[in-house]
Design brief:
The complex is a heterodimer of chains A (74) and B (564).
Chain A (H helix, E strand, L loop, with lengths): L1 H14 L3 E4 L3 E8 L2 E5 L4 E5 L2 E8 L1 H8 L6
Antiparallel strand pairs in A: 1-2, 2-5, 3-4
Chain B lengths: L2 E3 H12 L3 H21 L2 E4 L3 E8 L2 E4 L6 E4 L2 E8 L1 H7 L7 E2 L2 H24 L7 H10 L5 H7 L5 H11 L3 H19 L2 H34 L9 H9 L3 H11 L5 H16 L3 H35 L6 H9 L3 H6 L9 H14 L2 H30 L9 H13 L15 E4 L6 H9 L5 H7 L15 E4 L11 H21 L4 H11 L1 H11 L3 H9 L6
Antiparallel strand pairs in B: 2-3, 3-6, 4-5, 8-9
Helix pairs in contact in B: 1-2, 4-5, 4-6, 5-8, 9-13, 10-13, 11-13, 12-13, 13-14, 14-16, 19-20, 20-21, 21-22, 21-23, 22-23
The chains are: A alpha+beta (74), B mainly alpha (564).
């Protein structure tokens, strides 16, 4: 319930094209990707990928450090 | 395109959902903590309706300090990658526009040319450390740049150190777009190659197998305990009993429930299944836990089937011997599992006797002589089983202090099985514990919920810790950093708690209910529901003190459990 509400709030902001900054965790932001040519392995040919926007997440330094230091137990 | 910070999100939630601010704040903190912990422990965290966080290892690479221009090595690290779910992707890019294929003629000559280019470049690929365009990407780049001047230049380069190589290449490339595309491709390729989930799944299954062994050994031990108490006398031989056994098996359904009711451990199992299922729902941050539980059900069902089998056969004996109840468990044990410990516990002159012969001997004498005595003992035997667990706990603590840290169920099993083989008198006393007591120093960001999740693998058991530390914890939602907490022993795994544990947890929930009621938290009743779920007796005992309102009573009766 609370998780849904929280995720919903993040989505709501992203829908408005805002980027969401969560301290000590990371940033969700929307990036516009320009039109580009790319090789698509499935089609085995060069394709023109139209411009689009995508969600990007950048982990904060703290999270990155914690995660990099991790020692998987078991 | 403005930045929104966490606090604004919380404000949103409070406004739209009309939830209390402190609750929302705690929840947000907890959600992020769960994701972080999940990443650290498992490497993958899936949030339903949102997306998946996963880790991608990045090896060390060469970089340049932009300020001074000197070369530095960037150490290897894990990169957090978030891939949004479909719904979120659609939200951000509502209209999907498929890639448009370019002319095939354009692509075909490139490929032939690039083939040569790729071969010349391969040594460079292995030598360099990072951000290489994959083979497919290099094809494209080479086609775009008239390729003939490039190919020789590459063939010369391999001897040159890699760092020098990259900037040159970048300058040569006519279009920046083309440079971008290979990196993107390489990302997706690596992600596919990584696939951490299947390996995790395998690990979990192995764990379950170990747990299954716990179940069977526990049940065996229980029955061993019974044998050691009841069978004081040596046994005589009686042959015909065995035949009758076989005949009587048809009649079991009538008596089987009786038998099940008598053994204290077994009837709890079906309840536990339902618990485990409902518990997976509230957490839902981690899909893997759900899987493990599902698979554990399978094994428990298998275990339950064997138990039922034992019950049926013993039921057959029951009918035959009519009055005598206590003799049956040992008989069944002998049939099902003639273990070395059993052989030791019995003082028989000839150890080579087949197990079946031994148990058929078991019934005759007590039938005649001991019936009145054991009849009265049957109630005692029940209580004794309960009592033995706490005493066994102390013994187990003494012997197992060395490996406090071992939380995996498999390890204690090995230990206990060793002990059974040695055949010492302690055998009947030790039952393997899921978790043995620990003292914990509270550090920043910890909560009872998280401690329970970490140590018991089930956050819903947090009142177990709360109840044990009721004198030091003023508010169960906030722990004081720097304080110490005793994390009590958990006798069984979370989906197979012992009776004492259940009661302990229920009491913890009741205390939590009292606290929440005092501070006026609206969801206080859920604590009471949880208490009822773990041990309804506790709620009944305190009912007179609680002064529940009518609505509360109804809710309590309905017993809807809510995550909280």
């Amino acid at each position: 319930m609370l998780l849904d509400a929280y995720v919903g709030a993040i989505k709501h902001q992203l829908d408005k094209k805002n980027s969401v900054v969560l301290l000590n965790f990371g940033t969700f932001s929307i990036k516009e990707v320009a039109e580009k040519r790319s090789y698509i392995p499935a089609k085995k040919s060069l394709c023109l990928i139209p411009e689009h926007s995508k969600l990007s997440f950048k982990a904060s330094k703290k999270l990155r450090d914690e995660v990099s230091k991790r020692t998987p137990d078991e | 395109m403005s930045k929104v910070f966490g606090q604004a999100l919380l404000d949103d939630m409070v406004r739209s959902q009309s939830l209390p601010m402190p609750l929302v704040k705690d929840a947000a903190k907890e959600i992020l903590a769960v994701i972080r912990e999940g990443l650290i422990q498992d490497g993958v965290v899936k949030v339903s309706n949102f997306g998946t966080f996963r880790l991608k290892p990045v090896s060390a690479r060469q970089g340049i300090n932009p300020r001074t221009g000197e070369a530095i090595t960037i150490p290897a690290q894990q990169r957090v990658i978030f891939s949004p779910c479909k719904a979120l992707r659609d939200l951000i890019q509502p209209v999907y526009r498929p890639p448009i294929p370019l002319d095939p003629e354009q692509s075909s000559p490139e490929r032939t040319l690039s083939g040569a280019a790729v071969t010349s470049m391969t040594p460079r690929h292995t030598g360099k450390i990072t951000n290489e365009p994959p083979a497919s990407a290099t094809k494209k780049t080479s086609e775009e740049q008239t390729s003939i001047p490039l190919a020789p230049s590459h063939s010369i380069h391999p001897t040159v150190p890699t760092v020098v190589d990259t900037p040159q290449e970048a300058t040569e490339k006519p279009r920046p777009e083309v440079v971008q595309s290979p990196t993107r491709l390489s990302l997706s390729d690596n992600e596919n190659a990584q696939k951490p989930e299947p390996t995790l799944g395998r690990c979990c299954e192995e764990d379950e197998v170990i747990e299954l062994r716990v179940v069977t050994i526990e049940s065996q031990q229980q029955e061993k305990e019974e044998t050691s108490e009841i069978h004081v006398k040596p046994f005589d031989s009686r042959q015909h009993n065995k035949k009758e056994e076989v005949n009587e098996v048809h009649l079991e359904p009538i008596v089987a429930p009786l038998h099940n009711g008598r053994i204290t451990e077994f009837p709890m199992r079906p309840e536990n299944h339902s618990h485990a299922e409902s518990e997976t729902f509230p957490q839902d941050g981690n899909p893997i836990t759900g899987d493990t539980r599902a698979s554990s059900h399978r094994y428990y069902i298998a275990g339950a089937a064997t138990v039922l089998l034992i019950a049926l056969i013993s039921a057959g004996l029951l009918i035959e011997s009519e009055t005598d109840i206590n003799n049956t468990p040992p008989a069944t044990v002998a049939i099902e599992s003639p273990s070395p410990a059993m052989a030791l516990s019995r003082s028989e002159p000839v150890p080579e006797i087949v197990a079946n012969d031994r148990d058929t001997t078991g019934d005759t004498q007590p039938l005649i002589a001991a019936t009145p005595v054991i009849e009265s003992d049957s109630s005692l035997a029940k209580t004794e089983i309960d009592d033995q667990l706490p005493t066994g706990q102390t013994v187990a603590l003494d012997t197992m202090t060395g490996n406090n840290d071992k939380k995996i169920a498999g390890l204690p099993v090995k230990e206990s099985s060793k002990v059974t083989e040695s055949g010492s008198p302690v055998v009947t006393q030790i039952s393997n514990y899921y978790f043995t007591e620990q003292v914990h120093d509270v550090s920043n960001g910890e909560s009872l919920w998280r401690l329970a999740r970490h140590h018991y693998q089930d956050p819903l058991l947090w009142p177990h810790i709360y109840q044990a530390n009721i004198s030091t914890i003023a508010n169960p939602d906030h722990l004081l950093v720097g304080g110490t907490i005793a994390i009590p022993t958990l006798q069984g795994p979370p989906d197979q708690l012992s009776k004492a544990d259940r009661r302990h947890i229920a009491e913890g929930y009741y205390l939590a209910y009292q606290h929440y009621k005092k501070i006026g938290r609206p969801d206080a009743l859920f604590a009471l529901l949880e208490a009822k779920r773990y041990d309804s007796q506790v709620v009944e005992e305190h009912r007179s003190l609680m002064q529940l309102s009518g609505i509360d009573e109804i809710q309590l009766a309905q017993q809807q459990t809510m995550p909280f």
